[in-house]
Write a structure and sequence with these properties.
Blueprint lengths: L8 E4 L8 E7 L3 E4 L4 E6 L10 E6 L2 E2 L3 E5 L4 E3 L1 E5 L5 E5 L9
Antiparallel strand pairs: 1-2, 1-7, 2-3, 3-6, 4-5, 7-8, 9-10
Length: about 100
Amino acid sequence: MKRIKKGDQVVVIAGKDKGRQGTVLKVHDDKVIVETINMARKHMKANPMAGTEGGIVDKEMPLDVSNVMLFNPLTNKPDRVGFKILEDGKKVRYFKSNGEVVDV
């Protein structure tokens, strides 16, 4: 089980976008792509077979998973994540600061 999953609200804690929030779009091994964070301008070649135009395109680039923290909506701050096993045997993520379960 991973600490950051697709669809999570995260806060960037290091880098040029420090302090900004966004939603996780993709999770690779140790990289995450966050919506509208770490944008880069890519020069794309036109492909008439696929119907894509050429030009300069803004694209989200991956961030290291260590540079983001899960956003805690109860405290309105980024928070560390831990794991615990519930009574029914299900493994869940929880916020370290207040013990609230992230996954239900």
